[in-house]
Amino acid sequence: MKANLSLMALISLSLIPGAHPRTYAQSQADNPDFKVTVNMVQLNVAVTDKKGNYVTGLTPKDFVILEDGISERTATFGEGNEPARILNDAADAPIPAGEVAAHPEAAKNFADLINGANVFVLFDTSDYMYRGFVFAQDAITDFIRSLGNADKIAFYSYSRDLSRAATLTEDRTRVLSAVRSTVAGDQAALYNCLLLTLKDAALFTGRKVVVVFSNGPDNSSVVPPEDVAEFAQSAGVSIYMISTQQARIEPVSTVVFDRMTAATGGKAYFAKNWKDEQQAFASIRDDLAHLYSLSYYPKANANNGWRTISVRLVGDALKKYKVRTRSGYRPQPQRYTNANTATAADAPTTQDKSGDDKPAQAREESPGEGGKN
User: Fold this and answer.
1) Domain extent listing, the chain
2) Dist CA 23 CA 329 (whole Å)
3) Residue 328: which of 263, 267, 258, 266 has the closest Cα?
4) What is the mean pLDDT of residues 113-119?
């Protein structure tokens, strides 16, 4: 009982903006101040017609981005697997390659935008998965093999706890080996483990996606799904969720999956059999290949709470199309001090199951990059 209360307190604290467990670096600062930092906001945008077909060939001038009703200027633009490009201040036109150096902040983020997507696969290995386990492994394996060469992939599995079987890498062999090594076991704590996966994804810039395969409802988490969805939106991570018919045993899970994915710009799928699972993964792969990548630097906005994002198409001919992206984000207060503080590199490290060393601070608390995307 005491262990469960401690876990609840720790996770609840991590969901409060600006509040984190005391770390090695923070122990050096007795009187921290607070500030809100908002950098480039990156959006994954899908445009489809009434039949669900992807609309391609759009240009930056076809999009309008609004943040709290304030019109924002597109800073970078890309379509599908094509490299993103930095746009001129004057007229949404690409900046010549020789002039990119004159836009240092955009150039810094630009390198991340052109290097594919960071895809985190989260696999349900709870006791719900005894039936159809091998078929699910096959579907995930095919999905990983089908992703573009520029994409980086991480493979995590979960039951009551999260296993980081393969951290983000370009090495497909390592990821596929991690998939095949999974075994089914304990109860399901989906939302706990999804939050931890999102925290890992939030440490990276560029396009970030979490693909969840779940075979049933959550029966062990202490984190509410609403908080998980808000964190995903603020961190700029799109959630795609594939669930079997087992989830429909609990109608609440079906509603939660639909709302969570829609709020982050992703999609939810409910598979009746292994063929549906394969088709769902193929649909996600196609979605990633047809997304428009838009980014902007927010104009002055006094709102330090929830900021609503709206993306619209310009012109009567385009208004009939459907636009899908995340619905907003919350800028995160960050602690800082003028005193000498240790960096993450100076902090003690921990080791995950893949053998990769990471700063302990990064392992235990994500910055929750509200707008740092």
Assistant:
1) 117-290
2) 25
3) 263
4) 73
The answer to whether residues 133 and 246 touch, using CB atoms and an 8 Å cutoff, is no
Instruction: Kindly tell me if the per-residue pLDDT of 247 is higher than 80.
Output: no
Inter-residue contact 292 to 45 (CB < 8 Å):
yes
Asked whether 221 and 197 are in contact (CB, 8 A), the reply is no
Reading the block at residue 343, the tokens are: 């960096």
Q: Which whole number is the average pLDDT over 322-343?
A: 69
pTM of the full structure = 0.75
Average pLDDT, the chain: 78
Q: Residue 109's closest CA among 137, 133, 87?
A: 87
What band does 218 get if pLDDT is binned at 50, 70 and 90?
Answer: confident
CA 141, CA 98: separation in Å to the nearest integer?
41
Q: Which two tokens stand for residue 125?
A: 């290995």
Tokens describing residue 333: 């207060």
Query: What is the rounded distance in angstroms from the CA atom of residue 30 to the CA atom of residue 64?
Result: 44
**Per-residue pLDDT tens over the stretch 299-309:** 999 999 999 99
Task: Tell me the backbone φ, ψ of residue 316, rounded to 5 degrees.
Answer: -60, -35
Query: 117-290, what's its fold?
Result: Rossmann fold (3.40.50)
Written as one string, the DSSP assignment of 298-353 is: PPP----S-EEEEEEE-STTTTTSEEE---EE-PPEEEE-SS----GGGS-EEE-T
Q: Residue 215 corresponds to which amino acid?
A: N
Alpha helix stretches (DSSP H) within the chain: 2-14, 104-113, 133-146, 172-180, 190-201, 225-235, 251-264, 274-290, 360-364
> The sheet that has 307-313: what strands, in order across it?
70-72, 63-67, 307-313, 328-329
What span, in angstroms and rounded, lies between the C-alpha atoms of 353 and 77? 37
The full DSSP string for 194-206 is HHHHHHHHTTS-S
Contacts of 340 (CB under 8 A, 6+ apart): 28
In whole angstroms, give the CA distance from residue 80 to residue 316.
24
Residue position matching structure tokens 């079997």: 244
Identify the three-state secondary structure at position 64.
Answer: strand
Q: Which of 183, 138, 147 is nearest to 165 (CA)?
A: 183
| Per-residue tokens: 249 | 């045993």
Q: Does residue 349 register a pLDDT over 60?
A: no
Read off the tokens for 79: 């379509």
Question: From CA 280, how far away is CA 294, in angstroms rounded?
Answer: 25
Q: How many helices (H) and strands (E) does the chain have?
A: 9, 19
